[in-house]
Design a protein that fits this description.
The complex is a heterodimer of chains A (754) and B (320). Chain A is mainly beta and 754 residues long. In chain A, 7% of the residues lie in helices and 59% in strands. Chain A is globular and about 100 Å long. Chain B has two domains: 35-133, Immunoglobulins (Immunoglobulin-like), CATH 2.60.40; 139-289 and 305-318, no CATH class. The model of chain B is unreliable at 1-7 and 207-213 (pLDDT under 50). Classes of the chains: A mainly beta (754), B mainly beta (320). At the A-B interface, helix 6, strand 15, strand 35, strand 36 and strand 40 of A face helix 1, strand 1, strand 2, strand 3 and strand 4 of B.
């Protein structure tokens, strides 16, 4: 029995690794599928030979209850043990206590630097094109690098080589369309999907009422997003596939000013009319493109690729003033002058990369993986430009003058890495994978080489029970500076520099896996513990406002962190009933010499308990009921709980009753200002909710099928705090209020697929 | 029954329109009271240091006698430390707070002076230290541009507000980082400081919410070593309006004060500004107020040079 498992394992490990490298090729490229399907059915325990690895299927995404009718792949990722964010509205993903910038979110292995739309409402990934998600929370294979804490790689589907498939979905938040099929049957295929939101139309008005401030529907003249995915796949013979993939997604928030100013004054015989207005705009978006060549024969599988990825964010604050002069009596035009001025703040990151990954399985009991990658990153954390345009018009004589100033620094980061790893089966019970990744970082006048050893092992205690352990070292040379305790599109990507060293983490995991199938009941469970240390992490200094700093390097502190925890996961499957549970007990702390007086404090993403329970059941054909329950400890927050009395001269809000610039009768009126005693010293109320979803498919006799999804988000309407406010008053002298942005939300969506 | 999407949307909206805000319980912490030292030193006033105790926003700090038991020493340009006088009786320099005390040293600092302080709490033995310098005098000119009429809807009717607009030209010294703040001192009636606002890019730290704050501070990042002009205005007070027959006049009678700040003062203002921006928004990363106090306490000691324009006196006839 054990020998059989080993034999199957060697096939599956090779096939799975090849599949990873190939990027989960779709139906059209069934290159690797022949030996794979059968092995997957009979060797459940072998699938988990990698510790801390999770794979999510498109079906899981589809049956999990959605919000606003949007099947969101990243929301499913958040149900996995060790993976979390800081609640609703957070665009980032934290893995095992790491900061959000320490998780690599990628589409077909191409980094997507901001993986969300609408500031965290929905992710950047259209579920229509997702064919699978790989998550690594520890025990990283040598192939992976550039991030400290985890990898979330979303694999996009390829077009079908034989038939056309497509669909259209209409939801409350957005509508989307996808289509794919052969260009040349059996040789070339394409896939295309597009999504466009219409937030202000329905949800904006709802949120306008919820937030009670006219913030969305009334004031935002434009708020929304779109994204498109496209790909072409070409088979060359039986052994090669070339793929070209493209992704682009943009968001915009355009604020209409509450009022414009109009001024008309008569000076002598001239009527002077002055009009002024303003504009505030925020835009951000990702672009990614990938060209990949995959090759496989009996003993070798390779993937050679080149990609481009870009993330950009900008805010534009503009004003315009027009002065028009007319003869007061006859109201006839004399001349006009206009001035437009704007401040544009841009930040962004671009990455160009080329690399190759190769697997050799020609040596018995060995699966050797090796490869390399070279990337160039261009970072522009803060580029501010001011532009002033003066325009005068007097009948036919007009003049125009433009003044521009640009300031800010740009950075260039070169990264070269090579790696090798051997996955060895030793005897009947041991499987060990040992490897090394060498990464060199070239920054301004500095080169840093970081060796990253990786080792992981599995011991088959019984055919059903496996013990696993791993150690991996990771490094990262880019950081995301966040001005709030959740990730935001405006966060700045900055590089390591000569004075800010590369981040390094050490990850240790230990766990037990059990799987069995008895009388058509499939059961799997695992327990895994981890301990991680991080050094050279970055955070803003206390009391520093980045917007006022010409040099961000002077605004940050270098520190360290550690996190540890235990993760439990269980799954049961019986006929059409699927149930899963995951629970994480963890702690994450950080220390910076120049923050919080040098004392250790809880990290933003510290979360003591995190529980997910999911059930899906199909009582009859084409109908699925699914339900999910989420619970996690409240988010860490910093409250300015310290009251300091400040004289008005140093207080920015209050004005003195009176003063004399000549030093007479100066009374030092004192006002309260507020500081915090301990960073992240408080926590919000615990978060929990129950979601319910009904999914009904209606096959049409002639063509395609319709699908109606009815979802109830936060079924028992628990008001999970999005933010809290503290006000004076109440029985204790103060009152704490919480605001929830996702109360009970029913939603419906309709889709048609063929 | 015919089911239409509109009915469903109405149903959704009806269900959602329940309150999304409610009172929550928060586990508070006891906060130890510590000594707070503040001083704002300029070229036109004696040296004053205010000492007070800190407290908790939740009102659970034990009472403190820091203000009563404190002793403050000052040294000017490295000379021997002098004991400052606690001002117990006279209104001048008297903080309007029962738990605070002002300490006075009768010396008006000049540009370039370095002042060092030692603050001791005699009962607890706590010692705090701080130092600052008085910056150089800023060079600038002011000229009038005009008066803007702002139509503002106060909820009932549209009202006109008159905002005199000036142009300030600063001559920034080369090879130095310089920091400034600008204010308008209104001399009509009781002297008061009018809030200044500007849309010039140098005020990039200003936001809509903080437009009308005092201490419109800025740095020379955009005009280092050059002469730079920017326009600013301020909301003129009601008593600066005068009706003469059928005409209304708005009066400008005051001086513009340009303040040269130390870098530390600028950092303090920046952090205070951010703290103010984020107040009530605990979703944001809070700002710790910048401090240059050494020891187990809080506060800030900063230096500034006040320079004034000539008195500006204008009458503008406005539309009624």
């Amino acid at each position: 029995m054990t020998a059989l498992i080993r034999k199957i394992s060697s096939i599956v490990i090779f096939a799975l690794t090849a599949l990873e490298m190939a990027g989960q090729v779709g139906d059209s490229t069934a290159l690797f599928r022949g030996s794979l399907d059968a092995a997957l059915v009979s060797a459940h325990n072998v699938i988990h030979s990698n510790t801390s690895k999770i794979f999510i299927t498109p079906l899981q995404i589809k049956i999990t209850p959605s919000i606003f009718g949007e099947d969101d792949p990243m929301k499913i990722v958040l149900t996995m043990p060790g993976v979390q964010n800081n609640g609703e509205g957070d665009v980032g993903i934290s893995i095992r206590g790491g900061d959000t910038d320490q998780s690599l979110i990628s589409l077909d292995n191409v980094p997507i630097y901001n993986p969300s739309h609408l500031k965290g409402f929905v992710s950047s990934f259209n579920s229509d094109i997702v064919s699978g998600i790989d998550i690594y929370t520890g025990a990283f294979p040598a192939k992976y690098g550039s991030r400290l804490s985890g990898i979330v790689d979303i694999t996009s589907a390829d077009g079908d080589m034989k038939e056309y498939h497509g669909g259209i979905t209409v939801g409350l938040l957005s509508s989307k369309i996808h289509i794919g099929g052969p260009i040349v049957k059996g040789h070339t295929s394409f896939i295309f999907s597009a999504r466009k939101s219409y937030f202000p139309l329905i949800l904006g008005r709802i949120y306008d009422r919820i937030l009670d401030g006219g913030m969305y529907a009334d004031r935002f003249s434009e708020i929304g997003y779109y994204d498109i995915n496209a790909g072409i796949t070409q088979k060359i013979g039986d052994k090669s596939i070339i793929s070209l993939k493209f992704y682009n997604g943009d968001d915009i928030i355009n604020i209409v000013p509450a009022e414009d100013k109009i001024n008309s004054v008569i000076e002598k015989d001239t009527l002077k009319i002055t009009r002024s207005g303003s504009k505030n705009e925020e835009k951000w978006g990702n672009t990614a493109a990938l060209l990949r060549w995959q090759y496989q024969n009996n003993n070798l599988a390779s993937s050679t690729y080149s990609y481009y990825s870009r993330y950009g964010h900008h805010t534009l604050d503009g004003t315009n003033t027009m002065e028009e002069y007319r003869l007061a009596e006859r109201d006839s035009f004399i001349n006009s002058f206009s001035e437009e001025s704007s401040v544009l703040r841009k930040s962004g990151i671009e990455e160009y990369a080329i690399g190759s990954d190769i697997i050799l399985s020609s040596v018995a009991n060995h699966s050797i993986t090796f490869g390399g990658k070279f990337s160039y990153q261009h970072l522009s954390p803060i580029i501010s430009s001011t532009r002033t345009r003066n325009f005068s018009y007097a009948w036919k004589d007009d003049e125009s003058e433009i003044t521009e100033n640009v300031f800010g620094a740009e950075y260039h980061l070169f990264t070269a890495s090579i790696y090798g790893e051997d996955d060895i089966s030793i005897g009947e019970k041991w499987n060990i994978a040992a490897g090394l990744r060498l990464t060199g970082y070239g920054m301004h006048n500095k080169f840093q080489l970081v060796p990253e050893p990786r080792i992981r092992g599995a011991f088959f205690i019984t055919p059903l029970l496996t013990a696993k352990a791993s150690y991996s070292r990771m490094s990262q040379a880019i950081h995301q500076l966040s001005s709030s305790n959740i990730a935001s599109p405006s966060d700045l990507w900055v590089p390591s520099t000569a004075s800010l060293p590369v981040m390094v983490s050490n990850n240790l995991t230990l766990g037990l896996w059990f799987e069995n199938e008895y009388d058509k009941v499939y059961i799997s469970s695992s327990i895994e513990g981890y301990y991680k240390t991080m050094k050279n992490t970055l955070d803003y200094l206390d009391g520093i406002s980045l917007i006022n700093q010409s040099n961000w390097e002077e605004s940050v502190a270098v520190g360290r962190g550690r996190s540890y925890g235990i993760e439990l996961m269980g799954k049961v499957k019986y006929k059409t009933l699927d149930a899963s549970i995951s629970y994480t007990l963890s702690e994450s702390v950080q220390q910076y010499d120049k923050i919080n007086k040098g004392e250790w404090f809880f990290a933003n993403n510290d979360c003591r308990h995190n529980l997910f329970v999911g059930i899906s059941y199909s009582p009859f054909r084409n109908f699925v009921i699914s339900s999910s329950f989420y619970y996690k400890t409240g988010r860490r927050i910093t409250i300015s709980d310290l009251v300091i009395k400040t004289p008005y001269q140093l207080h920015q809000e209050m004005k003195p009753y009176y003063t004399s610039p000549n030093g007479i009768d100066v009374i030092w009126v004192l006002y309260n200002t507020y500081n915090y005693m301990e960073k992240n010293g408080y926590k919000m109320e615990d978060y929990h909710r129950l979601d319910l979803s009904f999914d009904y498919s209606i096959p049409h006799r002639k063509f395609g099928k319709s699908n109606i999804n009815l979802s109830f988000y936060n079924l028992y309407n628990h008001l999970n705090p999005y933010k809290i406010t503290i006000a004076e008053g109440g029985p204790n002298g103060f009152t704490v209020k919480k605001l929830c942005i996702f109360p009970f939300m029913p939603s419906i969506s309709y889709s048609f697929e063929f | 029954m015919k089911f239409t999407p509109n009915i469903f949307i109405l149903l959704i909206i009806a269900i959602i329109f329940n309150s999304c805000e409610e009172i929550m319980n928060l586990k508070t912490k006891d906060i130890e009271s510590k000594m707070v030292v503040y001083s704002y030193l300029t070229n036109e006033d004696s040296v004053v240091v205010v000492v007070s105790p800190s407290s908790s926003i939740f009102g659970n700090s034990p009472a403190s006698k820091y203000a009563l038991d404190a002793q403050v020493m000052v040294s000017v340009n490295g000379t021997e430390y002098q004991k400052m006088t606690r001002n117990d009786h006279h209104n001048t320099y008297k903080p309007i707070d029962s738990l605070a005390n002002a300490f006075v040293y009768e010396y008006v600092p000049q540009s370039g002076d370095m002042l060092s302080f030692i603050v001791e709490d005699l009962s607890s033995g706590t010692t705090l230290t701080a130092e600052t310098t008085i910056p150089a005098k800023p060079q600038f000119e002011i000229e009038l541009v005009g008066v803007d009429t702002i139509k503002y809807y106060n909820g009932l009717i549209y009202k006109d507000y008159y905002q005199p607009r000036f142009r300030c030209t600063i001559h920034d010294p080369a090879r130095d980082k310089n920091y400034y703040a600008i204010e308008y001192i209104n001399h009509s009636g009781r002297k008061s400081i009018n809030n200044v606002y500007s849309e010039d890019p140098i005020f990039q730290n200003m936001t809509e919410e903080t437009y009308f704050l005092s201490n419109a501070f800025f740095n020379d990042m955009l005009f280092d070593g050059q002469s730079y002009s920017f326009e600013f205005s301020f909301e003129n007070s009601e008593n600066a309006r005068k009706e003469v027959g059928k005409d209304i006049y708005t009066i400008v009678y005051g001086r513009v004060r340009l303040i040269q700040l130390t870098e530390e003062m600028y950092l303090y203002f920046s952090s205070s500004h951010e703290a103010l921006n984020h107040r009530g928004d605990l979703f944001s990363q809070p700002q710790q107020l910048y401090t240059n106090i050494q020891g187990d306490g809080y506060g800030f000691v900063g230096g500034a040079y006040h320079a004034y324009s000539d008195t500006l006196e204008y009458y503008f006839k406005c539309q009624k």
